[in-house]
C-alpha cells in the first residue's frame, strides 16, 4: 500500500541530501527502491486514473518542502536541497510532518492558509487544525492546488520574452471582457510603445473609452513608486483616465499607496495576482480533471 503523502516528506528531503538536482522521476525511482514497493503499489493510480499515487504524493511532498524553504526548484520539475534543508537533516530529525512545517516555517503556514506573497504570514498559534466539513476540506484543498499552480505559472511566464508577456496581458484583458474579441478588435494588439504605454485596449465593444496598459516582465526587483508615477505621467500625456499596470514582480508598499489625481484611475496587478486571473480565465492552463458534487434533485421526488 502506498503511504499518505506526508510520509514522503522526510524520504524526499533525505534523497536530496547529495546536493544534486533531481527531477521527479529520479526521486520516485530512488524512493521506490527504499520502500520496497510491489509492482501493484507502483502502478496504483489515484481515483481519477490520471496519474499514479506515487507520482501524485511525491510531487506534493516536494511542493510542501519547497514552500517551507527546505528545497529549491531551480527549474520546473527539478528539485535541489536548500541550506535550510541540510540544516534540518543535520539536526537529527527523522520525521517531517505538515504540522512541523507549519510550526517552524511561516512561509509554509501562509501557503496552506492560501495567502499570497503580499499577505502577512499566518501566526503560528493560529494554524492549528480545525474541524472541517467535507465541503470546506474540498474548498481548502482546491485553493491549495491553485496556489501551487499559480506559482508554476509565474515561473513559466517569467521565462518568456517581453513581447510574449505583453501579448499575454492583452489576451487576458480581452478574455475578461474588455474590448470584445481579438478578431473584432485588431487594434487591441498594436502596442504603441509611446511614452511608456505597452498596449491600448477598448473598455467596451463600442470603444467608448480606452484602457492603457503597462506590462513589466521582471524576474527580479520590486516595482516602486517611481515606476507608477512614470506610468501616470504617460497616461496624462495620452489624455487617458484609466490604466492597468501588470508585472511578473511585485509592488512596494509605497507604489500601492500612491494615489494619482482624481481624474486618473489605475489598477496594479502583481505576478501572483496575474497568474490567479490566468487560472480563472483559462489562459495558459487546461482542465486536468473535473469532479462533480451532486445533491438530491427535489423536483424529481416532488409529490403531486
How would you sum up this structure, described in words?
This protein is α/β, with parallel strands linked by helices and 304 residues long. It has two domains: 5-158, no CATH class; 162-280, 3-Layer(aba) Sandwich (Dna-directed Rna Polymerases I, Ii, And Iii 27 Kd Polypeptide, Chain: A, domain 1), CATH 3.40.1340.10. The protein contains twelve helices and nine strands. It has helices at 9-15, 24-35, 39-43, 53-68, 83-90, 98-104, 106-112, 134-158, 162-175, 225-237, 253-257, 271-280; strands spanning 22-23, 71-72, 78-81, 199-202, 210-216, 222-223, 242-247, 250-251, 265-269. The strands form three sheets. The protein has a four-stranded mixed beta sheet, with helices on both faces. The N and C termini lie far apart (51 Å).
How many beta-strand runs? 9
Strand content: 5-15%
Characterize the largest beta sheet: strand count, sense, and whether it forms a barrel.
Answer: 4 strands, mixed
- Total helices: the number is 12
Radius of gyration based on Cα positions: 23 Å
Regions with pLDDT < 50 over 5+ consecutive residues?
117-130, 185-192
Overall pLDDT confidence: 83
Q: What structural class do helix, strand and pairing data support?
A: alpha/beta
- Through-space gap between termini: 51 Å
The helix content is: 40-55%
Tally the structural domains: 2
Shape: globular
Order of helices and strands: HEHHHEEHHHHHEEEHEEHEH
> Order of strands across the biggest sheet?
4-5-7-9
